User: Fold this.
Amino acid sequence: MRIPGVPATPGQVRPAMLLAAVAVFAALVTLLANLLGLTGFTAEEETVNRVRATVSAAAPCTDSGGERVTFTQDGRDREARFDGCGHTEGEQVEINVPDGATGDDLTVQAAHNAVDSGGSGGVPGVVLLFGAAVAGGMIARWWWRQPTSSGGESQVLH
Assistant:
């Protein structure tokens, strides 16, 4: 316990410095993961249109070919490969179609399965990643402080 007005002893400063170092390490790990695109945040957002589509060719989930859907985009009917399975022909599904998508080899996915369909859905992942990095740093420090097999204390990170 620290008493106000009394200087901190080296035994009190060391854990605080260790915690600060682990927090900086965790922040760097989180930043690196974000820069590599592992957290779901990207520099440029791909805009998508949410469209109601009709399953035109159903497929069981054991079939790797996927399903086909038809939908209307910019006033014309289109067909695309649907990254889904287990639907019935004629079933209505909500899909995400990327803006400016053209061509016959278009693949769409269900709107509720989109990576960032929840707006700021990546925030809990970033917070959990930061917490995991802090916990990992503390566990690593604890592990290095364990006694060696000869009974003496390890000299690593003292």
Remarks:
- Residues 10-35 form the longest helix (26 residues).
- The beta strands are 48-57, 67-73, 76-82, 92-98, 107-110.
- DSSP finds two helices and five strands in the chain.
- The chain has a mean pLDDT of 76.
